[in-house]
Amino acid sequence: MEMFYTHLVRMLDDKNKYWRRNTIILCDGASYHTSEAMRLLYSRHQIPIMFTGPHSYAASPIELFFAAFKKNDINPSKVKTGKE
Length: 84
What we know:
mainly alpha, 2 domains, two-stranded parallel sheet, 4 helices
């Protein structure tokens, strides 16, 4: 995860060094996003980040896509996934 964010920041800095002024990275509250190591990384790279609350799928539309993808595309037996 740290490698991804380091690469992302480099890429965004190369394209527009002011990207932090109008960008927020939205993450869920998973432990791999909120760990102390990741919080230090966000701070070190000055990454503007926001975490969604628990079970706030409506606040993160990509979660609805993932739910549909899991339900239909990679779940041919149509086993319930917990999100509709």
